[in-house]
Amino acid sequence: MDEFVRAVEAAVFASAEPLGAAEIAAYAGEGDVAAALAELAERYQGHGIELVERGGRWHFQTAPDLAHLLRRTREEPRRLSRAATETLAIVAYHEPVSRADIEAIRGVQISKGTLDVLMEAGWVKTAGRREVPGRPLLYATTPEFLTHFGLGSRKDLPGIDDLKAAGLLDPLEDAIFQLDLDSESEERLESQEEAD
Protein backbone atom coordinates (compact mmCIF):
# COMPACT_ATOMS: atom_id res chain seq x y z
CA MET A 1 0.00 0.00 0.00
CA ASP A 2 1.27 3.44 -0.95
CA GLU A 3 2.50 5.65 1.93
CA PHE A 4 0.10 8.49 1.04
CA VAL A 5 -2.92 6.14 1.15
CA ARG A 6 -1.70 4.89 4.54
CA ALA A 7 -1.42 8.49 5.77
CA VAL A 8 -4.98 9.24 4.60
CA GLU A 9 -6.22 6.08 6.33
CA ALA A 10 -4.47 7.06 9.57
CA ALA A 11 -5.85 10.62 9.49
CA VAL A 12 -9.45 9.49 9.00
CA PHE A 13 -9.14 6.68 11.55
CA ALA A 14 -7.64 8.87 14.27
CA SER A 15 -10.11 11.72 13.90
CA ALA A 16 -12.97 11.98 16.38
CA GLU A 17 -15.02 13.86 13.75
CA PRO A 18 -15.68 13.18 10.05
CA LEU A 19 -13.11 14.99 7.88
CA GLY A 20 -13.40 16.83 4.57
CA ALA A 21 -10.84 16.34 1.79
CA ALA A 22 -9.01 19.58 2.66
CA GLU A 23 -8.69 18.54 6.32
CA ILE A 24 -7.38 15.12 5.31
CA ALA A 25 -4.83 16.74 2.98
CA ALA A 26 -3.64 18.94 5.88
CA TYR A 27 -2.76 15.79 7.82
CA ALA A 28 -1.62 13.47 5.02
CA GLY A 29 0.33 15.94 2.89
CA GLU A 30 0.38 16.34 -0.87
CA GLY A 31 -1.31 13.72 -2.99
CA ASP A 32 -4.59 12.76 -4.62
CA VAL A 33 -6.90 12.58 -1.59
CA ALA A 34 -9.96 11.62 -3.68
CA ALA A 35 -8.16 8.67 -5.26
CA ALA A 36 -6.80 7.53 -1.87
CA LEU A 37 -10.28 7.72 -0.31
CA ALA A 38 -11.79 5.78 -3.23
CA GLU A 39 -9.11 3.08 -2.86
CA LEU A 40 -9.70 2.84 0.91
CA ALA A 41 -13.49 2.76 0.55
CA GLU A 42 -13.17 -0.10 -1.92
CA ARG A 43 -10.66 -1.94 0.30
CA TYR A 44 -12.91 -1.70 3.39
CA GLN A 45 -16.11 -2.63 1.56
CA GLY A 46 -17.58 -5.77 3.13
CA HIS A 47 -15.39 -5.57 6.26
CA GLY A 48 -16.56 -5.03 9.83
CA ILE A 49 -15.90 -1.33 9.44
CA GLU A 50 -16.41 0.72 6.31
CA LEU A 51 -15.12 4.07 5.07
CA VAL A 52 -18.13 6.21 4.18
CA GLU A 53 -18.74 9.74 2.92
CA ARG A 54 -21.58 11.84 4.31
CA GLY A 55 -22.03 15.42 3.17
CA GLY A 56 -18.52 15.65 1.74
CA ARG A 57 -16.93 14.41 4.97
CA TRP A 58 -15.34 10.98 5.49
CA HIS A 59 -15.31 8.65 8.50
CA PHE A 60 -15.13 4.99 9.47
CA GLN A 61 -18.30 3.37 10.76
CA THR A 62 -19.42 -0.07 11.81
CA ALA A 63 -20.89 -2.06 8.93
CA PRO A 64 -24.69 -1.68 9.12
CA ASP A 65 -25.27 -5.43 9.32
CA LEU A 66 -23.07 -5.64 12.46
CA ALA A 67 -24.43 -2.60 14.33
CA HIS A 68 -26.66 -4.85 16.48
CA LEU A 69 -23.54 -6.31 18.11
CA LEU A 70 -22.67 -2.96 19.66
CA ARG A 71 -26.12 -1.97 20.91
CA ARG A 72 -25.50 -3.50 24.36
CA THR A 73 -22.75 -1.02 25.15
CA ARG A 74 -24.29 1.93 23.40
CA GLU A 75 -26.08 4.60 25.36
CA GLU A 76 -29.73 4.75 24.37
CA PRO A 77 -30.50 8.24 23.08
CA ARG A 78 -33.63 9.98 24.27
CA ARG A 79 -36.38 10.28 21.72
CA LEU A 80 -37.28 13.59 20.15
CA SER A 81 -40.70 15.02 20.93
CA ARG A 82 -43.21 15.30 18.09
CA ALA A 83 -42.65 19.08 18.03
CA ALA A 84 -38.87 18.62 17.74
CA THR A 85 -39.27 15.99 15.00
CA GLU A 86 -41.61 18.23 13.01
CA THR A 87 -39.31 21.23 13.49
CA LEU A 88 -36.27 19.22 12.35
CA ALA A 89 -38.14 18.07 9.24
CA ILE A 90 -39.17 21.65 8.41
CA VAL A 91 -35.61 22.91 8.82
CA ALA A 92 -34.22 20.04 6.70
CA TYR A 93 -36.69 20.47 3.83
CA HIS A 94 -36.96 24.29 3.79
CA GLU A 95 -33.63 25.61 5.08
CA PRO A 96 -32.69 28.28 5.81
CA VAL A 97 -35.86 29.07 7.80
CA SER A 98 -36.78 31.48 10.56
CA ARG A 99 -38.80 30.68 13.67
CA ALA A 100 -41.78 32.45 12.02
CA ASP A 101 -41.44 30.20 8.94
CA ILE A 102 -41.44 27.10 11.14
CA GLU A 103 -44.48 28.30 13.07
CA ALA A 104 -46.34 29.14 9.83
CA ILE A 105 -45.69 25.67 8.42
CA ARG A 106 -46.54 23.84 11.67
CA GLY A 107 -49.51 26.07 12.43
CA VAL A 108 -48.53 26.46 16.10
CA GLN A 109 -45.92 28.36 18.06
CA ILE A 110 -42.75 26.52 18.98
CA SER A 111 -41.03 26.91 22.29
CA LYS A 112 -37.43 28.10 22.34
CA GLY A 113 -36.52 24.79 23.95
CA THR A 114 -37.45 22.87 20.80
CA LEU A 115 -34.77 24.55 18.71
CA ASP A 116 -32.35 24.38 21.65
CA VAL A 117 -32.73 20.58 21.80
CA LEU A 118 -31.96 20.30 18.07
CA MET A 119 -28.99 22.64 18.36
CA GLU A 120 -27.70 20.73 21.41
CA ALA A 121 -27.91 17.49 19.40
CA GLY A 122 -25.76 19.20 16.76
CA TRP A 123 -28.33 18.77 13.98
CA VAL A 124 -29.42 22.41 13.60
CA LYS A 125 -27.35 25.61 13.62
CA THR A 126 -27.97 29.30 13.12
CA ALA A 127 -27.34 30.32 9.52
CA GLY A 128 -27.35 34.10 9.61
CA ARG A 129 -30.19 36.59 9.66
CA ARG A 130 -32.89 37.40 7.11
CA GLU A 131 -32.62 40.89 5.65
CA VAL A 132 -36.10 42.05 6.71
CA PRO A 133 -37.28 44.25 9.58
CA GLY A 134 -36.37 42.64 12.88
CA ARG A 135 -33.63 40.58 11.17
CA PRO A 136 -34.83 37.18 12.44
CA LEU A 137 -32.34 34.35 12.90
CA LEU A 138 -32.29 31.68 10.23
CA TYR A 139 -31.77 27.99 10.98
CA ALA A 140 -30.23 25.23 8.83
CA THR A 141 -29.08 21.63 9.26
CA THR A 142 -25.47 20.69 10.00
CA PRO A 143 -23.05 18.12 8.56
CA GLU A 144 -23.66 16.13 11.78
CA PHE A 145 -27.35 15.89 10.78
CA LEU A 146 -26.33 14.30 7.47
CA THR A 147 -23.90 11.93 9.20
CA HIS A 148 -26.38 10.86 11.88
CA PHE A 149 -29.13 10.08 9.38
CA GLY A 150 -26.77 8.48 6.81
CA LEU A 151 -27.39 11.09 4.10
CA GLY A 152 -24.82 12.11 1.50
CA SER A 153 -26.55 15.48 1.06
CA ARG A 154 -29.96 17.09 1.56
CA LYS A 155 -30.89 15.78 -1.90
CA ASP A 156 -31.03 12.31 -0.31
CA LEU A 157 -33.97 13.28 1.94
CA PRO A 158 -37.01 11.15 1.11
CA GLY A 159 -39.57 12.68 -1.25
CA ILE A 160 -43.36 12.56 -0.94
CA ASP A 161 -43.58 9.25 -2.84
CA ASP A 162 -40.97 7.67 -0.54
CA LEU A 163 -42.88 8.84 2.54
CA LYS A 164 -46.16 7.45 1.16
CA ALA A 165 -44.52 4.10 0.34
CA ALA A 166 -43.15 3.87 3.88
CA GLY A 167 -46.65 4.53 5.29
CA LEU A 168 -45.51 7.73 6.99
CA LEU A 169 -48.25 9.88 5.47
CA ASP A 170 -51.90 9.24 6.13
CA PRO A 171 -54.49 10.14 3.46
CA LEU A 172 -55.57 13.35 5.27
CA GLU A 173 -51.99 14.66 5.56
CA ASP A 174 -51.41 13.76 1.92
CA ALA A 175 -54.51 15.68 0.83
CA ILE A 176 -53.44 18.73 2.85
CA PHE A 177 -49.91 18.52 1.43
CA GLN A 178 -51.33 18.31 -2.11
CA LEU A 179 -53.55 21.37 -1.48
CA ASP A 180 -50.50 23.31 -0.28
CA LEU A 181 -48.58 22.33 -3.41
CA ASP A 182 -51.53 23.30 -5.65
CA SER A 183 -51.93 26.72 -3.99
CA GLU A 184 -48.16 27.39 -4.24
CA SER A 185 -48.27 26.52 -7.96
CA GLU A 186 -51.24 28.86 -8.50
CA GLU A 187 -49.46 31.69 -6.65
CA ARG A 188 -46.31 31.22 -8.78
CA LEU A 189 -48.41 31.19 -11.98
CA GLU A 190 -50.25 34.38 -10.94
CA SER A 191 -47.00 36.17 -10.07
CA GLN A 192 -45.50 35.14 -13.44
CA GLU A 193 -48.60 36.46 -15.25
CA GLU A 194 -48.36 39.75 -13.36
CA ALA A 195 -44.67 40.05 -14.26
CA ASP A 196 -45.48 39.52 -17.97
UniProtKB/TrEMBL annotation:
Keywords per UniProt: Cell cycle, Cell division, Chromosome partition, Cytoplasm
Pfam families on file: SMC_ScpB
InterPro entries: ScpB_csome_segregation, WH-like_DNA-bd_sf, WH_DNA-bd_sf
Superkingdom of the source species: Bacteria
NCBIfam families: SMC-Scp complex subunit ScpB (TIGR00281)
Protein name: SMC-Scp complex subunit ScpB
The species this protein was found in: Sphingomonas anseongensis
Gene: scpB
